[in-house]
Amino acid sequence: MRSADLGRGLSLAEWQNRDNRARYDRPDHHTLSLYLEGGEGVVREDGAVSGGGPDKLCLLPAGHESRWLIGGPLRMLHLYVAPETLAYQAVSALDVDPRAVSLHELTFAEDPATAMLMRGAVLPLDWAAGADRMALGSACHLLLHALLRRHAGGGARAVTGGLAPAIRRRIAELVEARLAEALSLEVLADEAGLSTFHFAKMFKASFGVPPHRYVTERRIARAKDLLAEGGASLAQIALACGFASQSHFTRRFAQATGLTPAAWRGAA
Predict the structure, then answer these.
(1) Phi and psi dihedrals of 29, rounded to 5?
(2) CA-CA-CA-CA torsion for 52, 53, 55, 60, nearest 10 degrees?
(3) pLDDT tens digits for 156-198?
């Protein structure tokens, strides 16, 4: 019925279907699905599970397999999440090691708070309108936090192969302190006492995303804070956040949020 690519590994789709079959064959993304209308006649054939209906949730992690018999009509809302995006949120928002996070698979689950957020904060917005992009992005990030807090586990398993916790904290602090500078992989690797090759590999294991992606995400987050404060010009914010120029800042910010910095400031 409609879809939207929100950038940074997030996208949305509103679907309708009836009297059909569907299957998931090891997709490379997580899918959070909310039944909006119908669904009582849906059966998950690979588990012989029924019990769908309005406001029921399914959570289908990346790499899973399932088969579905769709009896009767239904309408549903899907949020698609790249694993890297969820991993970055685990690190940046909750300070959780992404290697210790795995999403639970859910079929026809009850989660009124998440259902209300999807119905009330995502569904009514105009996904194509620039004016709604900030609210849409904020709502989807709240959904990511809900997934991590309520529907993720695995934290008790052994975590190996990444940066030591003290080094991880030191690298994160270094990035925050030097966002205005032209940070290089060599500088970060030197701080960790590793070769650039081994540092890049271990960084992604610890932070969920490659070093360049993490630095860019932190620069965008800092820029949002400065835009909300309202005192600095766009050129000053670009400089303070380590972008090569105002045009470079504008381009990267729009890629990340769907809005130019000026439009973001106007909507804040």
Answers:
(1) -135, 155
(2) 30
(3) 444 566 898 899 999 999 999 999 998 899 999 999 999 999 9
- Which residues fall within 8 angstroms of residue 155, CB to CB, at 6 or more apart? 96, 97, 100, 101
How far is Cα 130 from Cα 266, in angstroms, rounded to an integer? 11
* pLDDT exceeds cutoff 70 at 154: no
Contact (CB, 8 A) for 114 and 48:
no
Give the type of residue at 11: S
Spell out where the chain has E strands: 2-7, 10-25, 30-38, 41-44, 49-50, 56-60, 65-81, 102-103, 106-110, 152-153
Q: Do you know the residue count of the chain?
A: 268
Q: Report strand pairing: 10-25 vs 56-60.
A: unpaired
- SS3 call for 57: strand
In the block, which residue shows the tokens 């309520």? 150
- Count other C-beta atoms under 10 Å from residue 216's C-beta: 19
The tokens describing 213, both together, are 């992606």
Task: Tell me how far apart the alpha carbons of residues 171 and 176 are, in angstroms, rounded to a whole number.
Answer: 9
pLDDT in tens, 127-146: 987 778 888 988 998 999 99
* CB-based contacts of 113, cutoff 8 Å, min separation 6: 146
Collapse the DSSP code of 144 into the 3-class scheme (helix H, G, I; strand E, B; otherwise coil) and give the result: helix
**Is the model's pTM score more than 0.90?**
no
Classified as helix, coil or strand, 160 is coil
pLDDT, greater one: 140 or 96: 140
Cα–Cα distance between 259 and 134 in angstroms, integer? Answer: 8
